[in-house]
Design a protein that fits this description.
With about 950 residues, the chain is of the alpha+beta class. It is built from 14 helices and 54 strands. Helix content is about 15%, strand content about 40%.
Length: about 950
């Protein structure tokens, strides 16, 4: 239904755009823009009519011309990177207008929109905000503008691969950040099946970026659910203001001095084309393609998955080794439990095979051998006395019988031999992005836009597992009508998983194809007992046992390995059938999002007495994973959400004080409605000096996966399920057949390993009957932003957050067998933490200009408060981090440079994939550029992490080294 509605909306949109076009007589506005000092024409200057849509950009000689139906008088606005903006009143002749721009860098002169959803000076923003302009993007040293977000005050990231980075502010960083919103031209950039953005893999191309605004902290009052920890808004360039052809080619290298790889090439091509006609019709298209060798996951540290902590040892010293970036070794069994399981199965089998004549083969053997440990001759004699049909089963049982009787089998877990990530994951990174848009100025103040953004790529993402994202793609398609006081838009996001798969499942299932675990573990233990009985030491016996059990193992690179790998990674997870030998690790996600919203600003209607805005939105998640991610193998899943907001603001006391009140109500079909208010105040203490205070609230619904996931991870050792009652109780009966806590389950295993399992040790876990619920935050902030001197800008803030119903997860074990013969299934289930979680912090930023030199620096501090009982601390944020910047756009004629240095303290990273220490690190980005004005081009030589000190931003993810590049840009 929503698809049909969207198609109808598209048709109506174009009919509307064509038929209500204004019939007013156009006039031509023309002239020249020059540098005030050199008197040379300036190319690419944006020339617009203030308060209206459209405009143009000056040509190579500085001339400009465009048509408009506006009536004189009006005001022309000319703006250009590195020059002060000029406004020119036009009262008569609209031809031959000469405008001169003066080179200048004005601190605090930026205009932002996202802080209040209406334009305002950044100095007067009621909440903390960071901004990156097209001008600053040209000067960055990082390989991309998205990488440079780390230089913003209070921003941290989790780098999971070369192209997949998750941005965050104010604590609780994560690999897939569901507490941080990201928008591109007003479209929520999240992948519908994940509920978070996939970095900028499928996003905006660098040549098409007009500006980036980042709001640290809660923003639900204006932007709806999500954004508890921040919101990033990226805006692309308007074809009326930025015309012509542009391209940029970067070539470089990475993996320098990398023990895991030789030096590898890094190449990226960006192209943008834009054109407008008569200030009425405009089009643009952008393209970007990146190709490189990804950073490799090579953390082979030993990990205790139950306790979520590091443990000592490696494959040679720990027989239960579970390497972070090793997959298939998650499958582990207790040696005594396996032996007892073999014993019980043999007793049952012999009883059935003998027709009840031998009800308990163990008892029969105890009677025959007495207290002595039978030697080989005694064992052979006993076998000879049995019916021939029973001898093979008893023969297989004898090592376990002897091992248990002689106490040769330790109470110890052993794991299967895994495969390194580099043998399973596709590291051939690709990212292709394409976008196009058509603009039509219906009137001078009303514009219609049809826009499409599409991207595909290959990367690696870390969630509860390491996911190889191969040939996945996401498309976003938008229709919008906007004016000076209103906007109406509808868009859809179409996610396709392509050939993506789970690396640990792939490693585990290659092992299963080689030799089933039901055979591998008994074979291991049987040979261990034989080696110990032959006089080998414990360590030597383990080596012998693993060697025999691993016989026939597919070695990486072998034809058998590659055949099994290709079969498994191209078979859907939901098709897995152990009985028939079908194994799959592939996703089949085709989830979609449909979003519609409208907003109206009554400020002009109220003659600017007050600022007043209202808006409403509706969203539909259409989940389609064919049972490979969600509980949707046999049924469809749709999630409906709607919301509305209002905001009113008023300046008082001769415009020295401005108060703003905002509130939003949101409702999801699966949860109760939520109201999120916001109160802000800005106090002008002196010209260009403002103190701000705010109380903000935010919330986020449980993600689509929090609600409906049904996925095997950890090499099949755990099943993640949604926290809604229909999944927990309806499908898995966790209310009637209650699961047991992780701690009590491990205590029970310890008792079972002694031969006397004690079910009384098992403690039931009772889930909230309501299931998982939305989490919320209250945020208090006090800040200051101002120009202490004309060339010194200071921005400082402090915040305090209170989180309630914090969404976390628990591991539980459900017995799907009987008390006499238990079979446990491990579940990972999202739940809400009891009590409140608090965090607090502060940040300080400085920008200082000395001639053409600019100095910048910022430092941030973040800390978590007291934690509720049993809460797993996933704050995942360094207490202190800082950035330093130094640059000059033209240190000598046409030559500029920029340096960016960052440092962050060590901290502990906790996630469902891996937990451990992230060491402190520092990194230096640098670039030198040379401009060639005669051909509107520039050459940039630069690099990120130029000292090539490999570092990680989150535990379990790859270490990043240097990227050195040379870039050529035309009309950037």
């Amino acid at each position: 239904m929503s698809r049909n509605f969207t198609q109808i909306l598209y048709v109506l949109f174009f009919v509307f755009a064509i038929n209500i076009a204004a019939k007013a007589q156009n006039i031509t506005v023309s002239g020249t823009v020059k540098d005030k000092e050199s008197k040379q024409g300036l190319a690419g200057v944006s020339v617009t009519i203030k308060g209206q849509t459209g405009g143009t950009a000056s040509s190579g000689d500085g001339s400009f011309s465009f048509s408009t139906s506006a009536k004189v008088p009006f005001t022309l606005v000319a703006s250009y990177v590195g020059y002060g903006t000029v406004e020119r009143q036009v009262t008569g002749n609209t031809a031959g207008i000469n405008i001169e721009l003066e080179a200048a860098v004005v601190l605090g002169g930026d205009v932002v929109v996202s802080a209040s959803r209406t334009p305002e000076r950044i100095l007067e923003s009621p909440v903390s905000i960071e901004r990156m302009s097209a001008a600053s993007i040209r000067e960055i040293a990082a390989p991309s503008f998205y990488d440079a977000l780390n230089n913003m005050k209070g921003v941290e990231s989790s780098m999971q691969s070369l192209t997949f980075k998750s941005i965050n502010t104010r604590g609780f960083n994560s690999n897939g950040n569901t507490r941080f919103n990201q928008y591109i031209d007003g479209m929520d950039n999240q992948a519908p099946g994940l509920n978070f953005s996939v970095g900028n893999i499928v996003g905006i191309t660098e040549l098409d970026v007009d500006n980036v605004e980042l709001l640290p902290g809660a923003s639900s009052a204006l932007y709806g659910a999500g954004g508890i920890n921040g919101t990033l808004l990226m805006t692309s360039k308007d074809p009326f203001k930025y015309q012509g052809a542009s391209f940029q080619y970067k070539t470089g290298i990475n993996h320098v001095n990398d023990d895991n790889s030789s030096v590898q090439p890094f190449n990226q091509l960006d192209v943008r084309l834009a054109k407008s006609w008569n200030n009425k019709f405009g089009v643009k298209a952008a393209f970007s393609f990146l190709q490189a060798k990804d950073w490799m996951g090579t953390n082979y540290s030993n990990f205790d998955r139950n306790a979520r902590t590091f443990k000592s040892g490696d494959r040679n010293s720990d027989n239960n080794y579970d390497g972070i970036n090793v997959y298939g070794d998650e499958v582990s069994q207790n040696m005594r439990n396996v032996a007892l399981s073999v014993q019980n199965a043999t007793i049952s089998g012999i009883n059935a095979g003998s027709g009840g004549a031998i009800p308990n083969i163990k008892a029969l053997m105890d009677g025959a051998f007495g207290a002595a440990i039978p030697n080989a001759a005694q064992q052979a004699g006993f076998l000879a006395g049995l019916p021939a049909g029973l001898r093979p089963a008893v023969q297989n049982y004898l090592p376990f019988y002897v091992g248990l009787k002689a106490n040769l089998i330790p109470d110890q877990n052993v794991s299967r031999t895994g495969y390194n990530e580099r043998d399973l994951v596709d590291y051939d990174t690709k990212s292709l992005k394409a976008s196009g848009a058509v603009y039509y100025n219906i009137t001078n103040t009303i514009q219609a836009v049809a826009q499409a953004n599409w991207g595909t790529g290959t990367s690696v993402y870390t969630g509860s597992d390491r996911y190889s994202l191969r040939n996945f793609n996401i498309g976003q398609y938008k229709l919008e009508v906007k004016g000076q006081d209103f906007s109406i838009k509808g868009y859809t996001t179409q996610e396709r998983s392509g050939d993506s798969y789970i690396s640990s499942i792939l490693g585990s299932y290659i092992n299963e194809v080689t030799k089933a675990s039901t055979t591998w573990f008994p074979q291991y233990i049987g040979n261990y007992v034989g080696a110990r009985a032959a006089g080998q030491s414990d360590a030597a016996a383990h080596v012998t046992a693993r060697g025999v059990a691993n016989q026939g193992r597919f070695e990486p690179g072998s034809p058998q390995f590659e055949t099994a790998k290709q079969n498994i990674m191209n078979t859907n997870i939901s098709a897995t059938n152990f009985g028939s030998g079908v194994y799959g690790a592939k996703f089949d996600d085709k989830s979609n999002l449909y979003h519609y919203e409208g907003m109206y600003n009554f400020t002009n209607a109220f003659n600017n007495v007050v600022e007043f805005q209202v808006g409403a939105s509706y969203r539909l998640y259409d989940l389609n994973s064919a049972g490979t991610i969600f509980n949707d193998l046999t049924s469809s899943i749709d999630i409906n959400e709607y919301g509305a907001f209002a905001q009113i603001g008023k300046k008082l006391f001769n415009d020295k004080v401005k108060f703003t009140f905002a509130g939003r109500y949101d409702k999801s079909m699966n949860f109760e409605g939520r109201f999120t208010p916001r109160i802000t105040g800005v106090f002008t203490v002196a010209k260009n000096n403002n103190i701000r205070a705010s109380y903000q609230t935010g919330y986020r619904n449980p993600t689509t996966q929090n609600q409906y996931i049904d996925l095997s991870v950890g090499g099949g050792s755990q099943r993640l399920i949604g926290g809604l009652p229909e999944v927990m109780f309806g499908k898995y009966n966790l209310n009637t057949n209650k699961a047991f806590t992780d701690v009590s389950y491990r205590a029970f295993l310890a008792s079972a390993a002694t031969g006397t399992p004690n079910p009384a040790l098992l403690q039931q876990y009772t889930f909230d009957a309501r299931g998982v619920r939305p989490e919320s935050v209250q945020s208090y902030e006090l800040g200051y932003k101002g120009l202490i001197l004309p060339n010194l800008l200071i921005d400082a803030y402090g915040y305090y957050n209170i989180y309630k119903d914090f969404i976390t997860a628990v591991d539980v074990y459900q017995n799907v067998g009987t008390l006499a013969s238990p079979t446990f299934v491990k579940f990972g289930v999202p739940v809400n933490a009891e009590g409140e979680v608090t965090s607090y912090g502060a940040a300080l930023g400085l920008d200082y200009l000395v001639g053409n030199y600019n100095f910048s620096g910022n430092v941030s501090y973040n800390q978590i408060g007291d934690l509720p009982v049993n809460y797993i601390n996933d704050f995942n944020t360094p207490k202190v981090r800082f950035n330093l910047g130094f640059g000059n756009k033209e240190i000598i004629k046409n030559v500029g440079f920029n340096l960016s240095y960052r440092w962050q303290d060590k901290f502990y990273w906790n996630s469902s994939f891996a937990s451990g220490d992230v060491p402190a690190y520092s990194s230096l980005d640098a670039q030198v550029s040379y401009k060639i004005p005669s051909v509107k081009s520039s050459i940039k030589l630069g690099g990120s992490n130029v000292m090539n000190k490999y570092y990680i931003t989150s535990y379990g993810n790859p270490a990043a080294g240097a990227i050195y590049y040379l870039a050529f840009s035309f009309n950037p």
